[in-house]
Specification:
Layout: H1 2-13, H2 27-38, E1 49-54, H3 57-65, E2 76-83, H4 84-89, H5 97-116, E3 120-124, H6 129-135, E4 142-151
Helix pairs in contact: 2-5
């Protein structure tokens, strides 16, 4: 079906955006992006993430000072937190790495939703968790794990790209059936 291919096109065309125009991000746009996170797959449907939506320019500017991974000047950001009290209440005794997988799936949904509504977005993981916790007055049960920065993207101009984009060949990523050192499985995709 043609509509099904739209999802594949959106995935292929999505880019991490780091440079934004001055136009504001609205509360409704933020809610659209966060709703997409809610529909992401989650281990056991536990939903231990919490999302702090930030639109206040002063708060964003302060967070930016403790976030070396934040390029550009986003007009909104979503801080993805883990709720460790909820983890404990669920009695989860397995590997906690599964919760970081859940953060990843929720983040990808947010990035795709932002693109679908005309926003640019990018994930940020390089920041001071302690400082962000203080700036957002987070309770001790919540730890910030990742941020999604949002804004209206500056139009891409290929002559100003910082480095040429070299596509990764599918054949460099996929091993069929089993690993072979002679690369017999390489089909050149």
């Amino acid at each position: 079906m043609a509509g099904d291919r739209d999802v594949l096109t959106a995935i292929r065309q999505r880019r991490a955006v780091r440079h934004f125009e001055d136009a504001p991000v609205t509360r409704d746009q933020m809610l659209d992006v966060i709703r997409a996170a809610r529909w992401a797959p989650a281990a056991g449907n536990k939903r231990v993430q919490r999302y702090v939506a930030v639109l206040d320019p002063t708060t964003i500017r302060l967070i930016r000072t403790v976030t070396p991974g934040m390029a550009g000047h986003p007009k909104g950001l979503i801080v993805v937190c883990l709720d460790w009290e909820r983890v404990a209440a669920l009695g989860y005794g397995g590997s906690r790495s599964i919760f970081y997988v859940d953060i990843g799936t929720a983040t990808e949904n947010m990035l795709l939703a932002a693109q679908a509504i005309g926003l640019g977005a990018g994930p940020v993981t390089s920041f001071s968790k302690e400082a962000v916790s203080v700036l957002l007055r987070l309770p001790s049960r919540l730890t910030p794990e990742l941020m999604v920065i949002l804004g209206h993207p500056v139009p891409r101009r290929t002559e100003h790209q910082s480095r040429p984009r070299t596509p990764t060949r599918l054949g460099d990523l996929v091993i069929w059936e089993h690993f072979s050192s002679d690369r017999a499985n390489d089909h050149g995709y």
